[in-house]
Amino acid sequence: HLDRNGGNLNGIGIEICVAADNDYDQTIDNTALLAARLMFEYDLIPEKALKKHQDFSGKYCPQNMLDQNRWTDFAQQVSTYYNEISS
Asked: What is the pLDDT of residue 3?
């Protein structure tokens, strides 16, 4: 079930900059760390609360991450950072 009204009203959206002159791997890592810190601060559990834009909007997003089949690895990195922060 897609909650088309929930994402922006009830969540924290993080935009990921994709540019030819940036290090995309570093960008993904920085984003994972930011997501983990925010989840810790707001007492959210990554395995339950981490969502793609696609999960509530139906839009194919984050496109680059999905195209490269990196969402699962990203979610795992968020969980790893979260566990480091919370211990």
From this structure: 54
Q: Is the peptide bond before 46 cis (omega within 30 degrees of 0)?
A: no
d(CA 33, CA 81): 6
What per-residue confidence (pLDDT) applies to 62? Answer: 93
Q: What is the mean pLDDT of residues 13-28?
A: 91
What would the two tokens of residue 4 be?
Answer: 């088309």
Number of neighbours of residue 21 by Cβ within 10 angstroms: 4
Find all residues with CB under 8 Å of 80, minimum gap 6, and list them: 36
| Cα–Cα distances in angstroms (integers) from residue 41 to residues 4, 32, 38, 48, 57, in the given order | 25, 14, 5, 15, 25
